[in-house]
Design a protein that fits this description.
Shape: flat
Number of strands: 0
Order of helices and strands: HHHHHH
Strand content: under 5%
Largest sheet: none
Number of helices: 6
Radius of gyration: 23 Å
Oligomer: single chain
Length: about 160
């Protein structure tokens, strides 16, 4: 069994500490049109993902028993929103107005995912009661935040002159 010198462990710990203190490389600043295109690409996919999610949430609120296919559709929608949120978070945006738009779009995607999750909880509750059933029957889609995300995407397209 090799014996290392007492200083080797100290040097190793110091190296790990110093490497953690190094600043991460700053990503090169993309030109504004490239930043807008990247943001619009994610927003376009988010708006496209809303249609099946909206239908799945509305299906959770239909009278009668809810099918297992609805649960799978909600799972797919929730997963899609999670992936889109991660892609949105990874965008290297530097313009302050685009960073603000990115944050707002992230909050709207978080809401969409939360709404899908809550609708599944209401539709497939373990302990059904009258109050839960009444709340479930009021589900009719993603609601106003989904419309806000579409408007945000459309506004960004018109402001930037994108087709």
């Amino acid at each position: 069994m090799p014996v290392s010198s007492p200083g080797a462990a100290l040097r190793h710990r110091a190296f790990r500490f110093v490497t953690r203190l190094r600043p991460r490389p700053v990503p090169s600043r993309l030109p504004r049109p490239a930043q807008v295109r990247a943001l619009l690409a994610v927003l376009d996919k988010a708006v496209a993902a809303q249609q099946p999610a909206d239908a799945a949430v509305a299906s959770c609120g239909e009278p009668g028993p809810v099918s297992g296919q609805v649960a799978r559709d909600c799972g797919d929608a929730s997963s899609a929103f999670l992936h889109l949120r991660a892609r949105l978070r990874e965008l290297p945006l530097t313009d302050p107005d685009l960073v603000q738009t990115q944050a707002y779009a992230g909050r709207l995607l978080d809401y969409d995912q939360w709404m899908v999750h809550q609708s599944v909880n209401l539709a497939f509750t373990v302990h059904p009661d009258a109050r839960t059933e009444a709340a479930r029957l009021q589900l009719n889609g993603l609601g106003r935040p989904a419309d806000d995300l579409r408007r945000l995407r459309d506004t960004l397209k018109t402001e930037e002159g994108a087709p």
